[in-house]
Amino acid sequence: MANQDKPNSATPSANPSASQALQTTEDENQKSCWVCFATESDDRLAAWVQPCKCIGTTKWVHQSCLQRWVDEKQRGNISRKVLCPQCKAEYIVVFPSMGTFVALLDALEEITHKISPFIAGGVLLGSIYWIAITYGAVTVMQVVGHREGLEMMESADPLVLLVLLPTIPVTLISAKMYNWEDSVLLFLRKYCAKIPALAYILPFGNVDSERSALVTGQTTNANTNSESHLSPTRIFCSALLLPTISTIIGKLFFRSIQNNLHRTILGGLTYITIKGALKIYHKQMLYIRHSSRKILDYTESNLKLYRGATNAQSTETRDDTEQVV
């Protein structure tokens, strides 16, 4: 019997793994909140929840702590899904039933939230449409004449006006997007460079044939990039201001013409021609400047002449800045 009692009395010390397993089980059963780190013994009345697939000490959390944590994650959007940061399981959130009337209000709120973008888009398109109609009507009175324009629109079919007037700004903007100056400039470079008389009007410069294609392509790409950069503002403003500028130029230079429409058309053609000619001349001069550039020898004299001037200008600018400060 003595031999049998020793193992029984020595069992706790002879099996340390069993005692550790028992201690681990007791620690897992001990509830500890992973948000506030409080245990079950700290607050006997607190409500506990096991909201995810985590095991061990992180599977328990206070209901109130988890509610605050979920509120921080949702940030006011109660429909947003919240996942456990450890096991990535989605929390099962259940709302109590508040009655049929509240459910109806929730449905109306959801429907309103879904259709609001379409309503806003329709209002925006409608506003743009009526602005286009107003601009078209003002342009007609400006080009034809105030009294003549009113009489013309009063005698016209309203349906025709609703269709034709908005096309006026659309046509102006579409026509402005076509860059006819580049086509004319390429034609002049290709066919008219050998005509001596045109050299007094549009200089062609001395460009090597091997570099001509490269320089033309580079300048064309540069002009395209700059115009595409300005397209949202420059094209829009230039197109919509064209009738006003045409009317002003027509009144200044074609006063002898009594017909307002003819006078405005001549003013517009004059403005487009002069502006296009100046633009063609400017692009051609940029082309000549680019094609006539040279790369100098890396000598001390060239460094003093060019780099020294640049450094002096930068030094003066820095000194002026320091004095202003």
SSE layout and pairing:
Elements: H1 2-14, H2 16-29, E1 48-49, E2 61-62, H3 63-74, H4 100-144, H5 146-155, H6 158-164, H7 167-176, H8 180-191, H9 196-199, H10 209-253, H11 260-291, H12 300-324
Antiparallel strand pairs: 1-2
Helix pairs in contact: 4-5, 4-7, 7-10, 8-11, 10-11
Low-confidence stretches: 1-14, 224-229, 317-325
What share of residues is helical?
over 70%
Number of strands: 2
Query: In angstroms, what separates the terminal alpha carbons?
Result: 103 Å
What topology, given as strand order, has the largest sheet?
A: 1-2
List the total number of helices.
Answer: 12
Main beta sheet, described? 2 strands, antiparallel
Q: Please tell me the overall pLDDT.
A: 79
Form type:
elongated
Topology as a string of helices (H) and strands (E): HHEEHHHHHHHHHH
Radius of gyration: 41 Å
Judged by helices, strands and strand pairing, the structural class is: mainly alpha
Residue fraction in strands: under 5%
Looking at how many chains there are and whether they match, the oligomeric state comes to single chain
Description:
The longest helix is centred in the middle third of the chain and has 45 residues, at 100-144. It is built from twelve helices and two strands, in the order H-H-E-E-H-H-H-H-H-H-H-H-H-H. The protein has 325 residues and is mainly alpha-helical. The model is unreliable at 1-14, 224-229 and 317-325 (pLDDT under 50). Strands 1-2 form a two-stranded antiparallel ribbon. The chain has helices at residues 2-14, 16-29, 63-74, 100-144, 146-155, 158-164, 167-176, 180-191, 196-199, 209-253, 260-291, 300-324, and strands at residues 48-49, 61-62. The protein is 70% helix and 1% strand. Helix 4 (100-144) packs across helix 7, helix 7 packs antiparallel against helix 10 (209-253) and helix 8 packs across helix 11 (260-291). It is elongated and about 105 Å long.
